[in-house]
Amino acid sequence: MDETKTKYCLPRVKGSQLSCTLVGSLGVLLNLHHTAVLLHGTAGCAHYGLKFCQQMLMREGEIFPGFSPPSLNFRTTALTENELIFGGEDRLSTKIEEMLAAFPDFPLLVIPSCIVEVIGDDVKGVCERLSRQTGRTVNYFNMGGFLKGDHYQGVNSAYFDLIDRFLKPSVKIEPKKVNLVTERSLMPSADIDFLEVRRLLGLLGLVVNTRFVRNLPFEDLQNVTRAALNLPAVCNQSIAVCERLHQKFQMPFVHEGFPSGFEDTRNWLSAIAQALALKADIDALMETEQAFFYSEINRLGNPFNGLKIVVNSIPVHLGWLIEFLEMIGADLMEVNILDTGYFQQDFMDSPEALSCPVNARMRFEDMMANNRLKNAELYLQCSVHYSPIPNHQPGLLIKEIPVVPPVGPRGILNLFANWSQWMRPTGVEGWRHERFESIE
Amino acid sequence: MKQIAVYGKGGIGKSTITTNISVCLASSGYKVLQIGCDPKHDSTQMLHHGQLQPTVLDKLRENGPAGVSREDILKTGYAGVLTIEAGGPEPGIGCAGRGIISMFEILEKLAIITKDIDMILYDVLGDVVCGGFAVPIRKNYAQEIYIVTSGEFMSLYAANNICKCIARFSSRDKGTLAGIIGNGRLNKSWEKELISEFAAKVGSELVAFFPRDEIFYEAEVNQRTVMEYRAEHAISGMFQTLSRTVFDSPPLVSPIPFEPKELEQLVRRHG
Fold first, then answer.
1. What domains does chain A contain, in order, with CATH numbers?
2. Residues of B belonging to the active site
3. Is A87 an 8 Å CB contact of chain B?
4. How far apart are CA B235 and CA B210, in angstroms?
5. Which residues of B touch A89 (CB under 8 A)?
6. Which residue among A32, A114, A387, B23 is buried most deeply as judged by most CB within 10 Å?
7. pLDDT at position A397, please?
8. Domains in chain B, ordered, with CATH?
């Protein structure tokens, strides 16, 4: 295993809830359009992998209008016990031939699961033989299932394979074009966040070259290296992919992920301007953004002003949330961090700067007992999908903190609108749900 | 019913010894079943005068789990010995260990192991290379294990590895190693003594030692067991004695495997 693939990944911790490399890589490769994907493994692996991707996108019905489902050109060799004992190479050959016939215009991507690695099928050899025999390229991705690590290593492995095998140096660099790298494609907010990123880039006179690889046609992979700069979506994990692009094609990148809130956005825009040597008045841009933010919350009315709020979270980054609560005038009473054992990153830039207590809670019961004593008017909690904190407690008004922070000033404004909707009594005249589209 | 398993390095003579024990016991009136647990599926070949019988995994591949019948896989060989061959994938592909596990599942499903069988002998592939080949050692199958070895270092090394596996599956109060069977390959006077010392060192004993003899080769060329080919030969008499020992059960122990260095020293001392 290439060490750089694991450099920015979370450590494997006993009892972690991360999925396997297969699912991680599927989450990437199913985003490529105009391809056919063959999973060499059991039907269960295929079902689990595909369902995971679909359910991440569809949970709670949060489907953005631009939502496109994972590729339907997806098949599996559906290995049974017979293939495990006698080898699955014959079945793989048959299935590849079927898929080449069924999808004559698409490149075929073959992804093996861990059981195939355990029994030692020569998947690469079969793909190479059929490539020679048919004159069509059968692309083999070496994922290895649990043998190669966890979800994040699967994500990185897929990206690294794409970079190493399908990207070519560009003869011409477009100075005003940038790539978005490793967007969180399994999040329903990915495309909403994209609109805000595109809007912010537009403020600097930049346009998006490719979304590597969100909804990217396979043939457009060759355009990736035309961009002048790569922008990682997530500050830790995406960096490894950006480093690989830099190493192979000398493509520069910024070290910040997509920004959330105002301070992050200011830093992100500054980093981009510096990397591309752009002359831009970032302070003036941010003043305009803030002015719009305040004008909108005043227009809508601000139900959070002076509201007593307790934040319960797992240890994920919360700096953007604290900034947001300050901006809307909330009375932050306490921050409780539940130690789940596997989120290792710093959860707050400077918790000591807060005027309220920040408590590490080892047990959910301690957290709830304390919360009830506080008499807060609103509890903000991490998504129930990612934490053991129940979001339905009798007598408590609870709203979910998105685990992936909303991007940019408009993302925060959307969150404000969403939470405000629930803070208002029903039937208030003139109230409606606002969506702040990030359209230029 | 008694169930034993015979382990040892590949080519050391496990099948030869197992088939001759089977013939001895069957000739004495016992109902005997010999199960070959090796993808080569040649354990019971001499009992069928050189014919290879259909294997459990061949039938599994052809017909699926529901399509394997008792008649397909259970055959009767010389002296009435019942025989089954596990079989396995082609060399280099698939998973033979998983095949052994599947075979045992099929044997249970078809209720082939019945109480009227007096003795079941499992003849297992050269070494315990994975969990699949350890299935016969686990409880509910063979209660007694024999290891076949010569005085060659690699054969003893394999025997020591098998001891490690047996120790892993032996319970604290009850071992499963019944004895070491020596199969002379070196034509050296000290070979029997070396194997005997190895057996004692692992906490067991040498229950039989077969010197190198042309009769093994002659019987094999004629596609017979030694017991069938030359029942009056001295080697046949030794098989008779061994089969009685096996049937009467020597004391069982949980072996204490060697450290690699100790094994080297033992061989060097004798060689």
1. 3-166 (3.40.50.1980), 174-285 (3.40.50.1980), 301-405 (3.40.50)
2. 9, 14, 40, 127
3. yes
4. 7
5. 93
6. B23
7. 74
8. 2-270 (3.40.50.300)
Q: Is the peptide bond before A213 cis (omega within 30 degrees of 0)?
A: yes
ipTM value of the model?
Answer: 0.75
DSSP B238: H
Find where tokens 């998973």 sit.
B95
**Distance, CA of A50 to CA of A44 (rounded, Å):** 10
Show residues of chain A in contact with B91, CB under 8 Å: none
Query: What proportion of chain B, given as a percentage, has pLDDT over 90?
Result: 72
Give residue for tokens 């880039």. Answer: A201
Q: List pLDDT tens digits, range A351-390.
A: 556 777 777 766 666 766 666 556 788 888 876 555 555 5
pTM over 0.80: no
* Burial class for A252, CB neighbours closer than 10 Å (0-12, 13-18, 19+): middle
| Residue found by looking up tokens 């070519």 in the block | A168
Segment A77-131, tens digit of pLDDT: 999 888 999 999 999 999 999 999 999 999 999 999 988 888 888 899 999 999 9
Residue A179's nearest CA partner among A164, A201, A196, A199 is A201
Q: What is the CA radius of gyration of chain B?
A: 18
Report the number of secondary-structure helices (H) and strands (E) in chain A: 15, 14
Please indicate if any CB of chain A lies within 8 Å of the CB of B244.
Answer: no
Q: With left for phi above 0 and alpha for psi between -120 and 50, is residue B238 left, alpha or beta?
A: alpha
Whether the CB-CB separation of A125 and A87 falls below 8 Å is answered with no
Of A82, A118, A121, the CB nearest to B60: A82
What does the block give as tokens for A433?
Answer: 């749900």
